Fold:
Amino acid sequence: MSLLYALDLVGTAAFAASGAWAGIRRRMDVFGVMVLGLVTAIGGGTLRDMLLGDNPPFCFKNEIYLYLALGVSLSTFVLYRHLDTMRRPLLYFDAIGLGTFVVIGTEKALHFNLGFLGAVMMGVITATAGGITRDVLANQIPLILRKEIYASACLAGGALLVALIQMGITRSLALLIAATTVITVRLLAIHFNWALPRARD
Amino acid sequence: MSLLYALDLVGTAAFAASGAWAGIRRRMDVFGVMVLGLVTAIGGGTLRDMLLGDNPPFCFKNEIYLYLALGVSLSTFVLYRHLDTMRRPLLYFDAIGLGTFVVIGTEKALHFNLGFLGAVMMGVITATAGGITRDVLANQIPLILRKEIYASACLAGGALLVALIQMGITRSLALLIAATTVITVRLLAIHFNWALPRARD
Amino acid sequence: MSLLYALDLVGTAAFAASGAWAGIRRRMDVFGVMVLGLVTAIGGGTLRDMLLGDNPPFCFKNEIYLYLALGVSLSTFVLYRHLDTMRRPLLYFDAIGLGTFVVIGTEKALHFNLGFLGAVMMGVITATAGGITRDVLANQIPLILRKEIYASACLAGGALLVALIQMGITRSLALLIAATTVITVRLLAIHFNWALPRARD
Structure:
């Protein structure tokens, strides 16, 4: 569980950096960059908690998520000229965040007695709603709706977690397997440049 | 009530198809198309339940809405080349959804002791927030804010429902009259191409 | 407290006018203009209450906010050709709304036992989320993320309020000082055209 918490913080930081980056590219001021970083990092979990009725959302109960996201966003703003070498590592940290957020969201939803499909959806929302909000605020069609095996990895991971738990496997082991699967699929997708089919013209 | 439920499902399917269609036109992948279909179909009712504090929202309590919306979206993605003949019927199904969503939302809000204006607003939100979210995700100014007697039909239907219930008419009859009114106004608007005034340059 | 309520209503009206104005510029119909006015005026407080779990949100408990926002939006739509002389005064009323919304939001969050950073964030959300939603619906990058010392004034005001209350100053005096500070900073920013740094190309 402690490992999951550590991975959760790594993912939060990576998501914040990706949000801040998007803000910088859209020439936002320092406040806008911090808002985009924050929203990307905590938006998914916050929407999940609002849907589950678990108020106030997680990041207001444990403010470390807020401080971490704001700190990383500010650092990205200050250091962004020197961050080009970080682009590749950031993709990996982002994958860690993706896997961790999915399993945390799915598990929490099961804990709130949601059904199979609802729980998987909550996992996907936890992992993707922040990035979607980031792109909406940057006035772009959300990247995740157009490109790459990103959301599908989440979907698969959430479904796997539900299946493993229903098979009676220990919760912590199930979490670990599902998270690792998402992260692995995502890294392979980055490496081999996989994409989903889209409708032809 | 059973009739209302049937109409609700028809509307959900029609809204999902309209969302999926928007995703296909914006060249999203299959995941994006399903997200847009889902959000369009359940977004309004979900926002209503979040505002009313009825967590988790309706579609997580009765997952048939999720399965229906996802199934229709996927079918639309697969069959979209053959759906041109469906465009006219879809407008009619969409009108059914509109009328049904308005009265369901308004009635639920009254049940939660909201005031006159608040209850009508909840009806309008139930019927329109999904389509608004669809357009925001597709990076367009929401259609409903710019064109056609769409939202006004909702507004009128919600107000009519509140008035009928306050006049002491049986709830199920009031629901039926209000829903039928919205659907009829909407169909007439489609037929005669009515539009609301907008500010001149 | 009664003064704060009066300022709150002034701010609500000013925010509604700014939202309606944005809708008119984007050539929305009368319904769209009213939606934009309403969302701008009550969006921030509504999101705050959804996050705090205080359902239904404030404006459904006291519908005067709804009537005021809709009335101002409709008036703006009808009279917009004659409102050019109002542009400057509107900026001042808007500043009043900003200061009032920040302190109301921060204080309410403290009342709900949020931590330091969380409470300040709730104040900022109360003051800015409506305008952000307005810009998203108008398909623009939110102004507040790009320009002017707007959000920073909120941030400072929320932090000041928390600090004053922790110093043991009477709540009503603390509210007054913090709100006045935000309003003053905002008016100075308008006057001297201050801006935050943004990342260079």
